[in-house]
Automatic annotation (TrEMBL):
The lineage of its organism: Bacteria, Bacillati, Actinomycetota, Actinomycetes, Micromonosporales. Residues 5-293 form the Malonyl-CoA:ACP transacylase (MAT) domain. One of its GO terms (molecular function) is acyltransferase activity. InterPro entries: Ac_transferase_dom_sf, Acyl_transferase_dom, Acyl_Trfase/lysoPLipase, Mal-CoA-ACP_Trans/PKS_FabD, Malonyl_transacylase_ACP-bd, Single_hybrid_motif. SUPFAM superfamilies: FabD/lysophospholipase-like (SSF52151), Probable ACP-binding domain of malonyl-CoA ACP transacylase (SSF55048), Single hybrid motif (SSF51230). It is an enzyme of class 2 (transferase). This is [acyl-carrier-protein] S-malonyltransferase. It comes from Micromonospora vulcania. Its EC number is 2.3.1.39. Pfam families: Acyl_transf_1 (PF00698). Gene3D superfamilies: 2.40.50.100, Malonyl-CoA ACP transacylase, ACP-binding (3.30.70.250), Malonyl-Coenzyme A Acyl Carrier Protein, domain 2 (3.40.366.10). PANTHER family: MALONYL-COA-ACYL CARRIER PROTEIN TRANSACYLASE, MITOCHONDRIAL (PTHR42681:SF1). It comes from the Bacteria.
């Protein structure tokens, strides 16, 4: 199984889009997207310095544009899964078919401007806590009135909040940890961003999304999202909610992902995956930064994706949990059996009673992804259904 990752803020580098301008049509596409985003994406991706592209209002649409530009040159019909980090979720949602490219770019422009405006309301910041016991790190963050804005796995938790709280955390770091202050405008993914969430919600309400055409994971809880409207709501909520990249990587492992491509500017997420998913089951990784990397990315897709052939191709859909609780698969269903659209394949036991789990597409029950009495979260993958196309 192959996953495509869309990076978030902090991964940008001056001039990183310059090599892509040699590809026919790239500049025209960036000019069109610049009109939607309200920033000059050509200038930002080629001539702007580090300080200019550190500006949240500029960085966010630039990153989404970069991911979508590169992805246009990949055979995405062979890609099974997409996931993005923070603003990268907008790119991932577009690649999964939930949003059009234009909608993703427009939302990134609004998101960036509104988060920058929210940062200006009160002095706040962020700091990475590297190492230490995760429980102790989270306790220290809470003790200083801060928020765990990003839980990135691989021994990295990002604290966010008041500058005074960050100073105190740096002065009293948790045991066996070190603190690195991040050069960002404010406390992203915390309640400080509430005005930006409200502003983004008003724009997002006018979008008509589609349901994902491939597995799309959410930063909220690392689960697969089946419905477009649900994903748009999650994208809005994520402005103030923590990024649970650790849970996204856990899902990559649970689903048996064997190949990973990180879109430009690539490197940060690939590094986290490499450190977290180690051992014999570690996925093969390609970082796609320039057009010169496209052959390696296409080769990885050919070997780990669902390659086209003259024979019918298996297309997989994931059935996810409708609510939190304990999963119980239907007693009379076994892997290999045919499932019809709308068929109840089990239920989730909740405090309010059992909630039925129904298949949204027909096909063959190829694999249970959760077992009897497993605790499940909303949106967690429960079963994989395959069908010929």
């Amino acid at each position: 199984m192959l996953a495509v990752l869309s990076p978030g803020q902090g991964s940008q580098k001056p001039g990183f889009l310059t090599p892509w301008l040699d590809v026919t049509g790239t500049e025209a596409r960036l000019r069109w997207w610049s009109a939607l985003a309200g920033v000059d994406l050509v200038h930002l991706g080629t001539a702007a310095d580090a300080d200019e592209i550190k500006d949240t209002a500029r960085t966010q649409p630039l990153l989404v544009a970069a991911a979508l530009l590169a992805a246009e040159h990949l055979p995405l019909y062979d890609v099974t899964l997409t996931v993005g980090h923070s603003v990268g979720e907008l790119g991932a949602a577009a690649l999964a078919g939930v949003l059009s490219a234009e909608a993703a770019i427009t939302l990134a422009g609004v998101r960036g401007r509104e988060m920058a405006a929210a940062c200006a309301l009160e002095p706040t910041g962020m700091a990475a806590v590297l190492g230490g016991d995760p429980a102790e790190v989270l306790a220290a963050i809470d003790a200083h009135g801060l928020h765990p804005a990003n839980r990135n796995g691989a021994g990295q938790i990002v604290a966010a909040g008041s500058l005074d709280g960050l100073d105190k955390l740096a002065a009293e770091p948790p045991a066996k940890s070190r603190i690195i202050r991040l050069q960002v405008a404010g406390a992203f993914h915390t309640p400080y961003m509430a005005p930006a969430e409200a502003a983004l919600a008003t724009v997002a309400a006018g979008i008509t999304p589609s349901d994902p055409a491939r597995i799309l994971l959410s930063n909220l809880d690392g689960t697969a999202v089946n419905h477009g409207r649900d994903m748009v709501q999650r994208l809005v909520r994520q402005v103030t909610a923590p990024v649970r990249w650790d849970l996204c990587m856990r899902t990559l492992a649970d689903l048996g992902v064997t190949g990973v491509i990180e879109l430009p500017p690539a490197g940060t997420l690939a590094g986290l995956v490499k450190r977290e998913l180690k051992g014999t089951g570690a996925p093969e990784i390609v970082t796609l930064n320039t057009p010169d990397d496209l052959p390696a990315a296409r080769d990885l897709i050919a070997r780990h994706g669902m390659a086209p052939s003259h024979e019918p191709t298996m297309q997989f859909r994931v059935v996810v949990a409708p609510s939190a609780g304990t999963f119980a698969p239907a007693d009379d269903l076994a892997e290999g059996e045919t499932i019809r659209v709308g068929q109840v394949i089990g239920h989730v036991a909740t405090r309010q009673g059992p909630v039925e789990v129904a298949a949204h597409s027909g096909g063959v029950l190829t694999e249970w992804l959760a077992n009897h009495d497993d605790p499940v979260a909303p949106g967690q993958p429960l079963a994989r259904i395959g069908g010929h196309s």
